[in-house]
Amino acid sequence: MQIQTNWKTPQNSIKYSDFLQMLNININLPKCPERLIIVEQLENKLVISTPKFSVKWRIEYDFPADITVVKGTLNQSFNGNLLRISYKAHKIGEEIRKREFPVKNAPEKKERAPKQQREEAQEEAAPAQEDPVQKEQRIMTKAEKLLQVSTAPKAPLVVSKERKTNNQVNHKQTRTISNILTEKRVGSEQELLLKIAKKAQKQQQDRESGKVEAIEKKEQFVMQQIEAKQKRRDERESKKKAIVKRIKDKQGK
């Protein structure tokens, strides 16, 4: 590895993995824009430099003598601080091994119905940022649908013994850890949405019953006012009649 003295040398590391047959190089270039990083691949070396950046980084890597780097396999990524470079490589005298990882008991991918595809697409296309009102409306709509499904009468399920046995065998074969985790997550979400829907339904019933009570109280108050007004009118009429009677009695004497 050769380093020029008029450049700064960044922190770096180089490592060869014989198991993966991969040569990995990590270089720390803090706060350097990716467009200012120059990666030059020469015959037996790799040169990384930042001539237009405020900090002049430069480093040259001579590939290990016992390693053959496969040309055209350069792969690099940069996260704003760390530059990762990797090559397919193998020891001299060896070849690149082909690795296959067969999936055992992989569940068959079932074709989804168009309605299910549309619903999933709508859920995935939900805005990343929602205001509280939109979020609450979306949750309540989903919860109401779930409540309707959970409260709907279910027809008795009749399954033949042979089909039931086959389904149990297939279920055991295709059940994976990811399926189990997905079922638990979906189950917990459904329970939560069901609780939210029931709570909202109860609040709505309470509000409606509260409105009925308020109307009854108002009607009762109005009736009491009418009765009190009628009572005062009757009392005035009685007083008038009594006064008229006394006047007539005096005139008769």
From TrEMBL:
It comes from Hexamita inflata. Residues 98-120, 228-240 have a biased composition (Basic and acidic residues). Residues 98-135, 226-253 are annotated as: Disordered. This is Uncharacterized protein. Residues 241-253 have a biased composition (Basic residues).
